[in-house]
Amino acid sequence: MDRLGLRLADAERALATLAEALAIEAPTPLERDGAIQRFEYTFEVVWKLGQRYLAVHEGQPAVSPKAVFRGLGSAGVLSILGMQHAMEMTDDRNLTVHTYVEGVADKVHGELARHHGLLAEIAAEIRRRTVCGG
């Protein structure tokens, strides 16, 4: 399997672990923080998947998450609204270092299901474009 395929498989596994954490209906603070941690590594894997996709299939180098999401927007992987959401999600990811602040942790946790949807959409579209030859 090539590096893009490996990154895609990693992203799909990470997305599954985040979905598992989000299935907890009334999480304890520990479970909430665990879900945020799963979001952090899922975010990392998916933006790096996007980075690899842009390099291999679009010839676009991008070195930061926001540059990757802009590139995915330019490539049509993300809509304009998706790209705006990705920028907000990146800001939330940057806030996760402050999970010891209850209000920040609650805010970020409240957005995780929405963020999971976008991350899954990115991975699915990259899969469609690379596996199906789109």
What's the CATH H-level homologous superfamily? Answer: Nucleotidyltransferases  domain 2
- Number of DSSP helical runs: 5
The rounded Rg comes to 15 Å
Percentage beta strand: under 5%
Number of domains: 1
> Distance between the terminal alpha carbons, to the nearest Å?
19 Å
How is the main sheet built?
Answer: none
* General shape: globular
CATH level-1 class: Mainly Alpha
What does this structure look like?
By secondary structure, this protein is mostly helical. It has one domain: Nucleotidyltransferases  domain 2 (Four Helix Bundle (Hemerythrin (Met), subunit A), Up-down Bundle), CATH 1.20.120. 79% of the residues lie in helices and 0% in strands. The chain has five helices and no strands. It has helices at residues 3-22, 29-58, 65-74, 80-95, 102-131. Helix 1 (3-22) packs antiparallel against helix 2 and helix 2 (29-58) runs parallel beside helix 5. The chain is globular and about 45 Å long. The mean pLDDT is 94.
